[in-house]
UniProtKB/TrEMBL annotation:
This is GST N-terminal domain-containing protein. SUPFAM superfamilies: GST C-terminal domain-like, Thioredoxin-like. Residues 10-100 form the GST N-terminal domain. InterPro entries: Glutathione-S-Trfase_C_sf, Glutathione_S-Trfase_N, GST_UstS-like_C, Thioredoxin-like_sf. It comes from Calocera cornea HHB12733. It holds the Pfam family GST_C_7. Coiled coil: none annotated.
Length: 246
């Protein structure tokens, strides 16, 4: 064991196995804060049973006809459990303040900025990119996880994942929507030309959220990722923060 901190993440066959944009946000935060941690990877159908055995209540709000009862990421810190990437970030910021070479996760009280960036990414990037990436997710998972993902997403989306794929012309439009959303991030980064982060030379959780989404797009839609990194600002951010994805 590397310490008392444990990150519960979604299992995959990928190398490295981490891919979930939500769990990547927590992984980035832990690495950014220089906190040693272990990872427990759970296949999708095992998440609810494992977390309930640990004594956790459902961490996703009802109705459960449209979402799972339990979601990842979750962290364990000693005898304390925290779920949800943003709640985990707030907990880590309170518990592991800047010290020595460790800098603050929300420098200069940038929690509001991080919330705004999270909303922007969800509304302008993820809402579009999911239409291309989600149908590819089962190919990354173990057999049981892939079957669970297909079954539950068909129930929640109302169509099989294969039909969630758009036609080629529609995919081109979706990619343009994703890139337009990422152009907005590039514009934010240009506001601090000394860069490479949203606050210039100082990284914070707002930047880590962008990196997590970029890593997810890189896995699910490499062509869009390559185009996005033609932006000097996005390339500089990626190069500055990619080591924290490990």
């Amino acid at each position: 064991m590397s310490g008392d901190l444990v990150l519960y993440d979604v299992y995959s066959k990928l190398d490295p196995p981490q891919w979930s944009s939500n769990a990547l946000r927590t992984r980035l935060a832990l690495n950014f804060l220089q906190l040693p941690f272990d990872t427990v990877f759970l296949s999708y159908p095992d998440i609810e049973g494992h977390l309930s055995k640990l004594g956790l209540a459902p961490n996703s709000p009802p109705p459960y006809e449209a979402r799972p009862r339990y979601t990842l990421p979750v962290i364990k810190d000693g005898d304390k459990f925290v779920s949800g990437s943003f709640e985990i970030a707030l907990y880590l910021a309170r518990t592991y303040a800047a010290r020595g070479t460790r800098t603050a996760l929300f420098p200069h009280n940038t929690v509001p900025l991080a919330r705004l960036v999270a909303d922007y990414l969800n509304d302008n990037v993820l809402s579009h990119a999911r239409k291309i990436v989600l149908p590819r997710v089962p190919t990354w998972l173990d057999e049981r996880g892939a079957a669970y993902f297909r079954t539950t997403r068909r129930k929640w989306l109302g169509v099989p994942l294969e039909e969630y794929y758009s036609g080629l012309s529609e995919q081109a439009k979706i990619r343009m929507d994703v890139l337009r959303g990422l152009d907005g991030i590039s514009a934010m980064l240009r506001d601090h030309p000394e860069g490479p982060f949203l606050q210039g030379e100082e990284c914070g959780y707002a930047d880590l959220q962008i990196l997590a989404v970029m890593a997810w797009i890189k896995q699910g839609d490499p062509d869009t990722w390559n185009t996005a990194l033609e932006s000097p600002e996005m390339r500089a951010l990626w190069d500055a923060g990619k080591a924290w994805l490990a």
